[in-house]
Design brief:
Layout: E1 2-6, H1 14-25, E2 31-36, E3 50-52, H2 56-63, E4 67-70, E5 85-88, H3 109-117, E6 122-125, H4 128-138, E7 144-146, H5 160-170, E8 178-183, H6 188-193, H7 206-213, E9 217-221, E10 239-241, H8 248-254, E11 257-260, H9 265-269, E12 276-279, H10 283-290, H11 297-300, E13 305-306, H12 309-317, H13 319-325, H14 327-337, H15 345-353, E14 366-368
Parallel strand pairs: 1-2, 1-4, 2-3, 4-5, 5-6, 6-7, 8-9, 8-11, 9-10, 11-12, 12-13
Antiparallel strand pairs: 7-14
């Protein structure tokens, strides 16, 4: 069996990585090929076979695959041969609208991505709330399986404390230091209409962060993959750039709290139960003009929404009180969005794609299908 993996156009990460590692661990007889990029190649283990994303060789691999596993659109021109299965894991629960539901997109972009959607055979949903949103947004009529996300299994793993200690050690973080993970999402207009060089401006006052919180706090910056190359961090800054860390799940475990805005990281991080703060300095514009939301963040968020850097730093400094104040909301958030994140998502997905090679019957997933299921797309 030939299996081709793609994650965020060339990364060794996310649910495809979790599935790859499980398949390897179970000894499934397969040839594994990953699509990489020049700037991500160093993140792949030396024994992983890679081909450059978009190269003629990568197209040939996709067209010769028995199974394609991706967590995002594969925006390449390739013909899926009969008999190939394309598993689309997607990459998270959505707050912000996607694909056909967005308020704005560059001309022709959605139509081009529709060609990839037409190839999908299986689509994963992280929870019951998200299933029909995925179907409507993508115009997808095939089977959607509510499995949870394989990438999040590690957050419930017996190894989570070991991983936390290792990552903090690798980053030079002391046991007594408080780690704040900052995971802002991308802004569509800056990516598609910006200069492409430095289209992300750091909105946190780092001088205030350092003065108020001191060396006891470390700020880890994890930009979205669409913009991670667009910020320069000067030497001596309070920020540590972890954009190229292979797997964000490791950073969730290393962190003590997370600051985000509209990113799907809020749903994944909630599996850990650790505090979250929402730095929504451009909320009105992002929600009403740029992207649009599937629900009211202010009503649902498992932590406070703050509009200024000063408010954010104060909330970090008083995190225990903030956590207590939002405990009930956090519990409801987890019940709604994390009900399938039990550490067994990877096995549920393997039971779908390799039923004869896995322990079928021990795990179940809910499947929903549209009126027109195209099994040979």
């Amino acid at each position: 069996m030939n299996i081709v993996y793609a994650a965020f156009r060339g990364h060794f990460s996310d649910s495809p990585r979790a599935l790859y590692e499980a398949l390897r661990a179970q000894g499934v007889d397969a040839t594994h090929t990953w699509l990489s990029a020049p700037h991500t190649q160093a993140g792949f283990p030396p024994d992983v076979r890679t081909l450059t994303f978009g190269s003629p060789e990568s197209i040939a691999a996709l067209e010769g695959a028995d199974l394609v596993i991706s967590n995002d659109h594969i925006p390449l021109d390739w013909e899926k041969r009969p008999g190939t299965t394309y598993l689309q894991t997607w990459h998270g629960t959505m707050l912000k609208r996607i694909h056909n539901d967005v308020l704005w997109a560059p001309e022709g972009r959605l139509a081009y991505l529709d060609q990839d959607i037409a190839r999908w055979d299986l689509l994963l949903s992280p929870n019951s709330v998200t299933t029909e949103r995925l179907r409507k947004a993508f115009g997808y009529s095939g089977p959607i399986h509510e499995t949870g996300l394989p990438r999040n299994d590690v957050l419930s793993s017996p190894r989570r404390d070991e991983i936390r200690a290792r990552v903090r050690s690798d980053l030079g973080i002391g046991a007594d230091q408080t780690v704040v993970l900052y995971t802002p999402t991308w802004r569509d207009d800056l990516v598609f209409e910006g200069s492409g060089e430095r289209d992300f401006e750091f909105p946190i006052d780092l001088d205030e962060f350092s003065a108020r919180l001191g060396e006891d706090h470390v700020l880890l910056l994890r930009l979205h993959n669409m913009v991670m190359s667009r910020l320069e961090i000067t030497d001596g800054s309070a920020v540590r750039d972890v954009c190229n860390h292979p797997d964000i799940a490791d950073l969730y475990l290393a962190a003590d709290m997370m600051v985000t805005d509209y990113s799907s990281t809020m749903f994944d991080f909630a599996v850990t139960g650790k505090p979250q703060l929402f730095y929504t300095y451009d909320l009105d514009r992002y929600r009403d003009q740029l992207r649009g939301f599937y629900f009211d963040l202010a009503e649902v968020a498992p932590g406070p929404l703050v509009a200024t850097s000063a408010e954010l730093v104060s909330a970090i400094a008083d995190i225990d009180a903030v956590t207590a104040e939002h405990a009930e909301r956090y519990a409801r958030f987890r019940e709604t969005f994390c009900h399938l994140e039990d550490g067994a998502a990877t096995q549920r997905v393997l039971d779908l794609i390799l039923p004869s090679a896995t322990a079928s019957g021990q795990h179940t997933s809910t499947t929903t299908e549209g009126d027109d299921v195209r099994a040979d797309r």
